[in-house]
Design goal:
Blueprint: H1 2-23, H2 28-39, H3 47-62, H4 71-95, E1 99-100, E2 103-104, H5 106-116, H6 123-150, H7 155-185, H8 194-220, H9 226-253, H10 256-259, H11 265-269, H12 274-282, H13 285-294, H14 302-314, H15 317-335, H16 343-357
Helix pairs in contact: 1-2, 1-4, 2-6, 3-4, 3-8, 3-16, 4-6, 4-8, 5-6, 7-8, 8-9, 8-12, 9-15, 12-15, 15-16
């Protein structure tokens, strides 16, 4: 796997180098914009690339092939990382987050560039506008790189992978909208439906595009059968759900030194996660009203964050979410039993699932 991930990194480096060369004719501002957009892809766990490559390997091994992954799947894995970066740029803008992976979020970095250059106008407004365009550019690059790779795949493999990729783009966009809508729509939804609605967001915004669809894209480029794709979905979706629930826990209780974002940031951003839904279910009306008033306040101080954290723990919500993560992990593991996939790759899938669901960052 390490060699394949290195190949993905090299593919990204080569792709961005070509984009920088093309940008020089548009002037220094364009060069900075392209460089800033490319920098959004730096760092991270390369989770989506790893699942894509392992999906390819699982099908290739089952078919008796042990060759190294070709350019089609390497390019697809790299394209997924660019698409993920696009989603993060837009997500940080929507959430008004200041940091990402311990560094300034894209809109904050672009804002700082405006200020450093002593340009006219509102630096913050410039940063927001530029970040929208940066995310759009990353989506376009993601498509460009995918299509470059698909020229080396068979027509059937390319068509299946392209359809999976298109579905992923649609799903995550709808999921992102539902995520921001829920911050307001919770008010008119029954309290007993909040958890169900939060899980719907988790599925569309994260679980499918983080795990399930990368697996299916990689598998498609190895010529997967319908049964193999179904098995990978049965494994990938619950892993993706557990991954997002772990992210929700870290968004409330995570260590900033590990996550790169302030502890309790999801509370300041008003995220209506399953954690919040479970806590609200057992709170008295007065306590529930206090929680609703605090969540979403960007000025929450450490004491208020601590009070909300204690409420979530004391309500039993954290334990319930941990139990749900464990249940999803068991469902995923069962899906691999007797699966028509390569044995070595199945072991890698199990390792990836553990890493995705038990992480601290």
């Amino acid at each position: 796997m390490s060699d394949a991930i290195e190949a993905v990194s090299q593919r990204l480096d080569n792709f961005f180098a070509s984009r920088l060369r093309n940008a020089t004719e548009a002037g220094p501002e364009a060069v900075h914009f392209v460089r800033a957009s490319a920098s959004a892809v730096q760092g991270g766990k390369r989770l989506r690339a790893r699942f894509c490559l392992t999906g390819w390997r699982a099908v290739a091994e089952a078919g008796g092939r042990v060759a190294r992954p070709g350019d089609a799947v390497i390019a697809a894995a790299a394209a997924l990382e660019i698409f993920h970066a696009a989603a993060l740029v837009h997500d940080d803008l929507i959430d008004n987050s200041d940091t990402r992976r311990g560094k300034p979020a894209a809109h904050r970095a672009l804002e700082a560039h405006h200020r450093d250059q002593r340009w006219a106008g509102d630096a913050a407004a410039f940063g927001r506008s530029a970040a929208i365009l940066s995310g759009d550019l990353l989506v376009a690059w993601s498509d460009d790189l995918l299509e470059e790779g698909l020229t080396t795949a068979s027509s059937d493999e390319a068509a299946t992978a392209r359809a999976e990729y298109a579905r992923m783009r649609r799903d995550v966009t709808v999921g992102q909208f539902l995520d921001i809508a829920e911050e307001s729509a919770f008010l008119v939804a029954g309290d007993d439906r909040h958890a169900e609605r939060a899980l719907r967001v988790a599925s569309l915004k994260s679980a499918r595009y983080s795990v399930e669809q990368p697996l299916r894209i990689g598998a498609a480029l190895a010529g997967a059968s319908t049964g193999q794709l179904s098995t990978l979905s049965a494994f990938g979706h619950p892993v993706g759900m557990a991954f997002q629930l772990r992210d929700d826990v870290l968004g409330v209780f995570g260590d900033e030194a590990r996550t790169g974002k302030p502890s309790g940031d999801d509370l300041r951003e008003g995220k209506r996660t399953v954690l919040v839904a479970y806590a609200r279910e057992v709170l008295a009306p007065g306590a529930r009203a206090v929680v609703d008033e605090l969540i979403g306040d960007p000025e929450l101080d450490a004491e208020q964050i601590g009070a909300l954290q204690r409420t979530i723990v004391d309500s039993g919500a954290l334990d319930r979410v941990e139990d749900l993560i464990a249940a999803y992990a068991r469902d995923a593991d069962r899906a691999l039993s007797g699966a028509p996939l390569g044995n070595v790759a199945v072991g890698e899938l199990r390792d990836l699932a553990r890493a995705a669901t038990s992480r601290t960052a």
